[in-house]
Automatic annotation (TrEMBL):
Its cofactor is Zn(2+). Residues 25-145 form the Alcohol dehydrogenase-like N-terminal domain. This is Alcohol dehydrogenase catalytic domain-containing protein. It holds the Pfam family ADH_N. It comes from Vreelandella sp. SM1641. One of its GO terms (molecular function) is oxidoreductase activity. SUPFAM superfamilies: GroES-like. Keywords: Metal-binding, Oxidoreductase, Zinc. PANTHER family: DEHYDROGENASE, ZINC-CONTAINING, PUTATIVE (AFU_ORTHOLOGUE AFUA_2G02810)-RELATED, ZINC-TYPE ALCOHOL DEHYDROGENASE-LIKE.
């Protein structure tokens, strides 16, 4: 697929990258129809936010159509139109149960790194550096959306 990839400060390229695949039974693959560009993307573009890696797919706010769902996904089906916020959350951990989705305890697979950088790491985010889990974003044809 084609995607906008970060390669360094002020260096974003339109690359060909592997199509995303279901990696977890609670994943879905979304065919992206639109993706926002916001001020937070500029923090990546100017490399204000650390822990970006060459080839990271940008785009943290996107929408599209569900193409494929994992075996444990109960609330989505192929063909559904969806809007994806950048925050990834499980809905089950203590913080999610309190409604504090932005500090989900399970979705940031690099939480220890984020704790060091920010004092307290937040949830995983799409398209937003390895401090927030290193998840590929939506400035792409397809995205693996995870419910972790
Ligand atoms: Zn944003
Ligand atoms: Zn959670």
């Amino acid at each position: 697929m084609k995607a906008l990839c970060w390669h360094g400060k002020n260096d974003v390229r339109y690359d060909t990258v592997p199509d995303p695949e279901i990696e977890h039974p609670r994943d879905a693959i979304v065919n992206v129809s639109s993706c926002a560009i916001c001020g937070s993307d500029l923090h990546l573009y100017d490399h204000f936010i650390p822990a970006m890696e060459s080839g990271d797919v940008l785009g943290h706010e996107f929408m599209g159509e569900v193409m494929e769902v994992g075996s444990e996904v109960k609330n989505l089906k192929v063909g559904d139109r969806v809007v994806i916020p950048f925050t990834i959350f499980c809905g089950e951990c203590e913080q999610c149960q309190r409604g504090n989705y932005s500090v989900c305890e399970r979705s940031n697979r690099n939480k220890a790194l984020a704790d060091k950088a920010f004092g307290h790491g937040g949830a995983g985010l799409f398209g937003y550096s390895h401090l927030t889990g290193g998840y590929a974003g939506g400035q792409a044809e397809f995205v693996r959306v995870t419910i972790c």
